[in-house]
Amino acid sequence: MKVLGIDTSTMIATCALIEDGRVLGEFSLNQEMSHSENLVPMIKELLDSLNLKVADIDLYGVAIGPGSFTGLRIGIATAKAFAHVYDKPIVGISTLEGLAFNLTFSGIIVPMIDARRNRVYTGIYRWEKGRLINILAPTIMEIEELLELLNNYDHIMVNGNGTYIHRDRILEVLKDKVEFAPIGLNECRAISIAELSLLKKDEKRDYNYYTLVPEYLRESQAQRELKGKESGSR
Questions:
Q1: Half-sphere exposure of 193 toward its Cβ, with a 13 Å CA cutoff?
Q2: What sign for the dihedral angle of Cα 129, 133, 135, 141?
């Protein structure tokens, strides 16, 4: 089964193709360029390099958030369009779970995505008998609140772009309890999204190209501004 994974939830735009336990290819870019401009060309170049067509894909996996509102919409819309045209299954994967899946670590794994205003999107994960288990559901949290919670653990690995921003504070509070992921495992990777989608494809969840939607965890800036205007007009 050929599985195409896509993640555009952060500044990283990434796509990857796996088949029968093998990585066929991966393409990632981290640059100040709209995902709407580079995602489809990236997918095309990946498939062209493998002498494949979009019609050859059997399953789509896409990161559904949290993360950039615009980025998520672009990635999800692209995956849904392909799945719809070729009538193929699609699975939505939490961006945080995808980040945690990058790491094989004996302690707890804490992905962090910058949510601005000293907050992060985060969750807590650990491996049990070869399965990644979620022990704190994806949420948005003040960094100080998260660090206070993590101080109850002794063996922690963190990754995600939130760790760049809050690295000094993380080290100050958690000291030798914490490890930072290697550079290659610190960013969103479509390979993890693809593999997770393959593992979850048989779960009884309402994922298809009609119903799949982003999981923002908070309202977009436009929605918040609209509510503010409505409140002010009353």
A1: 33
A2: positive
What pLDDT, in 10s, does the model give residues 66-115?
Answer: 999 999 999 999 999 999 999 999 999 999 999 999 999 999 999 999 99
In sequence order, the 6+-apart residues with CB closer than 8 A to the CB of 41 are none
pTM for the model stands at 0.91
137-179 pLDDT tens trace? 999 999 999 999 999 999 999 999 999 999 999 999 999 999 9
CA distance 181 to 173: 17
Secondary structure (3-state) at 47 = helix
Strand-pairing partners, residue 142, are 119
> Which residue has 């004996």 as its token pair?
106
Task: Choose which CATH entry (3.40.980.20, 3.40.50.1970, 3.30.420.40, 3.40.190.10) describes domain 2-94+188-219.
Answer: 3.30.420.40
- The CA distance from 171 to 156, in Å, is 11
CB count in 10 Å sphere of residue 43: 23
β-bridge partners, 128: 131
Give the CATH number of domain 103-185; options: 1.10.10.10, 3.40.50.300, 3.30.420.40, 3.10.590.10: 3.30.420.40
Decide if 234 contacts 155 (C-beta within 8 A): no
Q: How many Cβ atoms are within 10 Å of 169's Cβ, its own excluded?
A: 13
The phi and psi torsions of 50 (rounded to 5 degrees) equal -105, 5
Distance, in Å, from the CA atom of 119 to the CA atom of 109, rounded to the nearest integer, reads: 18
